[in-house]
Amino acid sequence: MSISIQSITKTFGAYTALENVSLEVPDGSLTALLGPSGSGKTTLLRIVAGLEFADPGPGKIAFHGEDVGDIPAGRRGVGFVFQHYALFRHMTVAQNIAFGLSVLPRAARPQKSEIRDRVMELLKLVKLEGLDQRRPHELSGGQRQRVALARALAIRPKVLLLDEPFGALDAQVRKDLRRWLRQFHDEIGLTTLFVTHDQEEALELSDQVVVMRNARIEQVGEPQTVYDNPRSPFVYEFLGNVNKLHAGQDVRYVRPHEIDVLFAAEFDPATDSLARVQHLFSAGPIATLTVKLGDGQFLDVELSRKQLDELGLSVGDEVAVRPAVMA
Amino acid sequence: MSYRPVTTESAPVRLFLIACAVLVLALFLLLPLAAVFAEAFRKGWEVFLASLHEEAALSAIKLTLIAAGVSVPLNTLFGVSAAWLVTKFRFKGRSLLVSLIDLPFAVSPVIAGLVWVMLFGAKGWFPQSAMADAFAPAAHLAASLAEYQGFGWLFSDLAVWLADPKIIFALPGIVIATTFVTFPFVARELIPLMETQGSDQEEAAVTLGARGWHVFFRVTLPNIKWGLLYGVLLCNARAMGEFGAVSVVSGHIRGETNTLPLHVEVLYNEYQFSAAFACATLLAFLALVTLSLKTAVEYFSGHDASGKH
Amino acid sequence: MPKRRVIPGFGLSMGFTISYLSLIILIPLAALFLKAARLGASQWWQILTSERIIAAAKLTFGASAAAATVSTVLGLLVTWVLVRYRFPGRRLLDAMVDLPFALPTAVAGITLTQIYAPHGWVGQYISQAALWIQATYAPTGWWGEVIQDWADKGAAYSPLGVFIALTFIGFPFVVRTLQPVMEDFSSEYEEAAATLGAGRWTVFRRVILPMFIPALITGFTLAFARAIGEYGSVIFISGNLPMKTEILPLLVVAQLEQFKYEAAAVIAAGMLIVSFTLLFLINLLQRRLNWQNN
User: Fold this and answer.
1) What is the DSSP-derived secondary structure letter of residue B215?
2) N or C: which end of chain B has fewer CB within 10 A?
3) Distance of alpha carbon A299 from its chain centroid, rounded?
């Protein structure tokens, strides 16, 4: 189900969290809300969920064309996974997952056996079979997150909302779970909106990236497009490492891997600059080189380990640097 | 149309609950406080003032001040020492020690008095007669010292007491019973506070060359001063107001071994209600001062100083 | 080689703490138990099962349990309001909760008696209500006696008075135990329950309340343990009628006044065993829950 957000503004006293924000989330997509803390991304997610309310005005939130602004969170049909999962610690995994079904009005509530079947089905879906009688404190971080996901899915939500889904996990678990979530999303095809401050996570996982800054949306697009054609210096800097070069009044942005390094002997005054190697870091497949340009500015360059070996560089050597792509 | 956050109740429910809570607190807490003052002034200012000027009342006030004056500093010293021990060091039996510090909270005040009677009472383990024999040499020494001019007066009271070492139904009993009852207050306030602050700053001070007491006075004390002050306040309030324990060891000798709370009891049982409540206002006032200072301490320290007691 | 420690003062603080603890608390308590142990098991049994003690124990534990229960309910209400809502006078109310801690028990005792006595500020209404019940329903039997009591004496000089005093004393324990737990309670749990479709009352009943249960039990136990030993605030309002309104601490004093040291020690030892067990149980509970939350 598509989500349509139109002209939403949200203020907390004198502080503006969202300013005239509009966004279309296509049906079945996995969309990332990406931005630094304080950019308004979590507030936007919470407004979609009905946990926060936009300022009165022309703003509108619609699921598949139907205005949901006046529908309370409990009846809006959203599955919300909290940053710290908010699993009910006095309930078992099964009770947690069944919660949404067990609080339905008596007339709409499924039979006990139906609820149990649904819980088992969900546990299987999130690959946690056999853990139904565990309590949250007996689970690992990754398992807790999947229980929270299963609990949110139990009510058959129209959209799935995830607040910093990997924020509380270790680096390794994070990577595995990221891949799993992408796969999971492709399987169930539920419109999903998630918040993150990690550009790598947003780029790798999503169909659509929404870059936010200071209560506004900076850019929306497919990860590749946003990365290759950043619309503003902010987006450029936020989406990965970048060299910022000053030439008089102008500022140029060059990504470290978009620079070629050549022997000083191959120097071509038309395109190249001469530079001296300041620092070398070559643990891993990608080597990072810091060079100092003639005008005193520093430049980070990434090249493959193989290239570095071929150049045979060491600190203090003079090299020619040539921008591979200009931006 | 519902623009109410999901984490709160509707306005009528909120108002109803606030009204209930205010009613409970007013009826339950404010009413007794108001009653103390109302009863005290029922017969006018003169009676009120006269009740406080009475000889027995003055001696009760004096005794209360002495009891608190001895027990509060002692327990403060203990509280700091115990908190230092259990928060800065890890050793075997540490958690047992923490439980033992809490022990007096679980002891009825009456029992806190009774234990001293078991030790020093007429049928106790160290009755007065036995102590008089044991102290006889010391009593002689003190008596001879008391004859010297200049410093002799320092020893005269001691000599008298050592010759007839009375603990139960006398000042020492009241002091030690008060000390027992107020034992954990400072420690209880400091231990959680120092636990959360950790030992990083002290260790840093040691690596910078600070030694011994310097570490405590220059690094630890400034960090715990508000908690310490609050602990001392509570300890003092309880010391001055203690009734059960003191009642058991005092013997209720009017003008001699009655503390202020005991004096209130005696007056009340003699149906001198106005006088009883007049003296009670002093104690109620002490409670109000303690609560105000507590609120002020919380305000200045910027964190919630309220703990369990 | 002794263990090396970076921070100074281990020896000094250990020495002083242990000596002081032993002198002020441990040796005196040991003296009490030794005194009680001088009597054999049969004498213990005889003392502890005497009619007067049984009646006092029933009243002490019964009124303490009832008072701790009511304290828990009122404490939950008051803490909820103090933590969750913002309204003028909130800080004043918060400060007032500690009044029973700060007000000397003897003062609380005589004041409560004055208020709840038949002509007191509250007692007169209780008395009138009891008279009305008598006139309307003419209750008989056990219930009739109770109503007669209330009609004659208001809420004072009866088990009701003991219960009122103990509730007054125990109430702050519940609030101060529950308050930090409620303040730290993450709103995520409520929001999660709300997004799953639970109404406010359901959220409270099935999510919030169960998470407060450990703190409520701890508060209840602290209030209960304190109530068992309470003396000053009770003896004035109870009236100390043998077999009817005597509490255990009063019997300890009574034995002492008759120079029955051993009997006093036995009753005291019995009370201490109950209190220590309760304290031990809350420690156990808290340790278990700390482990669970990590």
Assistant:
1) I
2) N
3) 28
pLDDT tens digits for range C54-68: 999 999 999 999 999
The tens digit of pLDDT for each residue in C29-48 reads: 999 999 899 888 899 999 89
Work out the end-to-end distance of chain A between its first and last CA atoms, rounded to an integer number of angstroms.
Answer: 37
Q: Which residue's structure tokens are 């060491």?
A: A314
CB contact under 8 A, B1 and A70: yes
Residues of chain C with C-beta less than 8 angstroms from the C-beta of A88: 189, 192-193, 207, 210-211
Domains delineated in chain B = 43-121+168-301 (1.10.3720.10), 123-166 (no CATH)
Residue pair A87/A142 in contact by the 8 Å Cβ criterion = no
**10 Å Cβ neighbour count for A276?**
14
Q: What is the mean pLDDT of chain B?
A: 88
Chain A residues closer than 8 Å to B8 by CB: none
A75, closest residue in chain C (CA to CA) = C197
Q: Residue B207 belongs to what H/E stretch?
A: helix B200-207
When CB atoms are compared, the residue of C105, C110, C271 closest to B111 is C271
Residue B309 has pLDDT above 70, yes or no: no
How far off is chain B from A37, nearest CA to CA, in Å? 22
Which of C212, C227, C221, C207 is CA-nearest to residue C180? C212
A131 touches chain C (CB under 8 A): no
Are C122 and B31 in contact by the 8 Å Cβ rule? The answer is: yes
DSSP state string for C68-134: HHHHHHHHHHHHHHHHH---TTHHHHHHHTTHHHHS-HHHHHHHHHHHHSTTSTTHHHHHHHHHHHH
User: With a cut of 50, which residues of chain A have pLDDT below it?
Assistant: 326-327
For chain C, percent helix, then strand, then coil, each to nearest 5? Answer: 80, 0, 20
Give me C13's structure tokens: 């603080």
C249 touches chain B (CB under 8 A): yes
CB contact (8 A) between residue C197 and residue A74: yes
- Structure confidence at residue C154 (pLDDT): 86
* Residue ranges of chain C with per-residue pLDDT less than 50: 1, 294
Q: Do C249 and B295 touch (CB under 8 A)?
A: no
State the smallest CA–CA distance between residue A244 and chain C in angstroms: 41
Q: Taking the model in full, what pTM does it have?
A: 0.88
pLDDT > 70 fraction of chain B, expressed in percent and rounded: 96
Does the domain at residues A242-323 carry the CATH identifier 3.20.20.140? no
Question: Which class is domain A3-237?
Answer: alpha beta
- Written as one letter, the residue type at C141 is G
Say if the Cβ atoms of C104 and B20 lie within 8 Å.
no
**Statement: residue B1 has pLDDT above 60:** no
Q: Residue A162 and residue A168: Cα distance in Å, rounded?
A: 13
Number of A/B CB contacts below 8 angstroms equals 12
Beta carbons within 8 Å of A19's beta carbon, 6+ residues apart: A9, A40, A215, A216
**Domain locations in chain A as residue ranges:** 3-237, 242-323
Closest chain B residue to the Cα of A69, Cα to Cα:
B1
Q: Which chains border A (3 or more CB–CB pairs < 8 Å)? A: B, C
Rounded Cα gap, residues C77 and C62, in angstroms: 23
pLDDT of residue C290: 64
In chain C, which residues have their Cβ closer than 8 Å to the Cβ of B292? 95
Which domains are assigned to chain C?
Answer: 44-103+160-293 (1.10.3720.10)
* Residue B151 to chain C, least CA–CA distance (Å): 30
Report which DSSP code applies to A264. Answer: G
Task: Supply the pLDDT for residue A325.
Answer: 54
SS3 (DSSP) at B152: coil
Average pLDDT over residues B268-292: 93
